[in-house]
Amino acid sequence: xxxxxxxxxxxxxxxxxxxxxxxxxxxxxxxxxxxxxxxxxxxxxxxxxxxxxxxxxxxxxxxxxxxxxxxxxxxxxxxxxxxxxxxxxxxxxxxxxxxxxxxxxxxxxxxxxxxxxxxxxxxxxxxxxxxxxxxxx
Length: 137
Prior knowledge:
Elements: E1 10-11, E2 17-18, E3 21-28, E4 35-42, E5 47-48, E6 51-53, E7 57-63, E8 66-70, E9 75-78, E10 83-86, E11 92-96, E12 102-109, E13 118-120, H1 126-129, E14 133-135
Parallel strand pairs: 9-14
Antiparallel strand pairs: 1-3, 2-5, 3-4, 4-12, 6-13, 7-10, 7-12, 8-9, 8-11
């Protein structure tokens, strides 16, 4: 058993995010583990750029309302306690609503080969971010 010393909170890089986003690395698995887990805090209106994950990603909303956008133009709302799974290779973005902070636990795996864990694409436009929202149920 090992207690891991926490790393300092890190400001997310501006080339991959719009607005102020901060994260804490909870786990960055070393072989044989490939688990990655970050607690991510989005300021109001902040969001990721479009991206996809080689092995998919799971988001668990802790506080606020998460917006998750897909390439077909759908913007889903996820509320505290809800978990959303993005399949491998699906291009998506996620972020906070314009008026509230949002925190989520982001979990994904390294692919175990030479593929990138996350492929970052272009930034989400204000028009894409502002599309009408829907709930999954």
